Amino acid sequence: MSAPFSPRSPRTLRGLGALALCGGFVAPAPAAFLEDGSARLEARTVYFNRDFRDGSSANPQGASKREEAAQGFILDLRSGYTEGALGFGVDTLAMLGIKLDSSPADSNSGLLPSSGHDPRRSVDQYAKAGVAGKMRFSQTQFRYGAMLPDMPLLKYNDGRLLPTLFHGAQLTSEEIAGLRLSATRLERYTARDSSDAQDIRLHCKNKRYACDTTGNRFDAYQLDYQVNDGLLLQYAQGGLRNVYRQRYLGAVGKRQLGAGKLSADLRWFDSEDAGAARAGKIDNRALSLLLAYAEGGHTLSAGWQRMNGASSMPYLDGSNPYLANYLQVNDFANPEERSWQLRYDFDLRSVGVPGLSFMTRYVNGDHIRLANGDEGKEWERDIELKYVVQSGRFKDLSLRLRNATYRTDFERSARDVDEVRLIASYNLSLF
């Protein structure tokens, strides 16, 4: 079971976190504390099949196939706040993963942890949990403990059986209408397929960076300004101490155009090495844009993404990069890479089939320059079909089929992939 927060947290944060946590348990529990709370249980069944198409488990990059199935349970308990000018509360996340099918030859899919005595064999079950104390004054909130951060500099990963948990502190304020300020410090994380909290580290996809590169802490400061109903502006800065620092500028706009709606999402990152530069030199600027037009049940999107600088865009292990061309398998974030995307979404409610939706997208990237000398191109095609039961005993049961095809011609750094994911998810509201 993972520790809910790091024992090396600063003394001030320890004190505030303990105050929030104890306040949630010790203070009298008036109606608001209970009535404004919620409890939700998600049962999630996942089948994962990734075929690297090389036909040999002796490949220096690992096994030729990864195929497992598992059952997950996620319990999300959230209290309201105690009454008074200063309110206290407590939130809890508890997760359990159970192996349904796995073999040593096809393990390490990201669904289940490896067994300690045999790294090719998955454990039968694992669990993790975290508690977060919280305080609220007016429109300002402070949280300390386990959290699922969702912000441009760090978006937690939930692409397998159980999500990644991060541990630290977060302060958010919305005292001014339309303006949201936040400050976040994280010091530990529990990976999606792990029970143990560990130091925050840099993601090492395709060995772009050393896989053991850790930082003392991750900090992020963010400003969101809702100019009007059709325009959101964002600025953020932060990074992983002694590894990299990063700045972000973003704008999301939407407006009515004819019978449909036009939307635009512009994202810019500027990243460089920091402090002791434990990952070596980092030099990257990432610009991406996604345009979409929706009418009826149809949405057509086009995206463009460009990497500048000598290195790839850095981001944390256990997170998803906030890029327009981040897909099911690939992120298209190699040094100097240029990529474009076409996407089509269809909500079949518009033709009388509520609950059924379809998505397909294609991204092509080229002009790649890797540090090991590789140059080349890559592409990915995703297809997704989803159905949500609309009524009856199994109302809100979600069935999802995800298929991805990825191809590359720089084989020393990446591998071709054919991937299928089947996901069944059922959310039960307990109160």
Automatic annotation (TrEMBL):
The lineage of its organism: Bacteria, Pseudomonadati, Pseudomonadota, Gammaproteobacteria, Pseudomonadales. Transmembrane segments: none annotated. Keywords: Signal, Transport. Pfam families: OprD (PF03573). The keyword Transport applies. Residues 1-31 form the signal peptide. This is Outer membrane porin, OprD family. Belongs to the outer membrane porin (Opr) (TC 1.B.25) family. The keyword Signal applies. GO terms for molecular function: porin activity. One of its GO terms (cellular component) is membrane.
